[in-house]
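Before a colleague's protein record goes any further, I have to sign it off. Would you go through it and say whether the fold makes sense for this chain? Take the sequence as given and treat only the tokens as open to question. The record follows directly below this note.
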Amino acid sequence: MSTDTGTGARRPSCAVCLRPQQTCICRWIAPVPHALEVLILQHPLEVANAKGSARLLHLSLPGSKLIVGETFAPAALAPLLEGKRSVLLYPDTAGDHSLGIPAPPPFDPGWADQAASLCLVVLDGTWRKSRKMLYLNPLLQQLPRLPLRDTPPSHYLIRKAHAPDQLSTLEATCYALMQLEDDRRRFQPLIDAFDGFVAQQLRYVTTA
């Protein structure tokens, strides 16, 4: 497999992480067993973003699916949400009503006692892109939302946050899994691997 550099030449790319071999991130893949299913819906503009963490997350979670799109046909999205109790990893946000987004059904904390029956749905994109994905997909609006609790500051030093509590897709998903499965230690290696990924990207920035 290869990628076009934009100058007509082609350079080899990794078949696993899909990045150019010189910037391959496979060394940071940290497979972690997990009880929940994880469905990652990735905005198309994030696919080739070198700073994105969703691909690393997907490769590290054996029970995850990664689907690319902005608007998903209900006939295609509905089967992905059926079979388990789907929960959207997304904060309750002011202004939903003004956009015509109905209030989501409540999240029952007792569901965490049956983690294996849950499917965690994650939107991968900037705040504006993920907001648009929610707006364009009524099926996502109908899902209860998971509120994250007591998360540490983000380690995502390679991307500007628009709010102090904003996290990368990988971090937010890991903290959600820690919370729902009540096991921080098991998912910590993935956070540690993320730190290595961030350090690698920072080196590219400082040497560019």
Observations:
- Helices lie at 54-60, 74-81, 127-136, 138-141, 169-181, 184-207.
